[in-house]
Amino acid sequence: MAHGEEGWKRQYEYYPTKWREPYLGRRRKLGWDLYGLLGIAKGEREKTRVQHGKNFLFFDAPVGLIFTIDDDFEKGSWLDYGMFLQSVMLAARGLGLDTCPQAAIASAHEIIRRQLGIPASEVVVCGMSLGYARDELVNTLVVEREPVAGFASFRGFER
Question: Does this model's pTM top 0.70?
Answer without folding.
Answer: yes
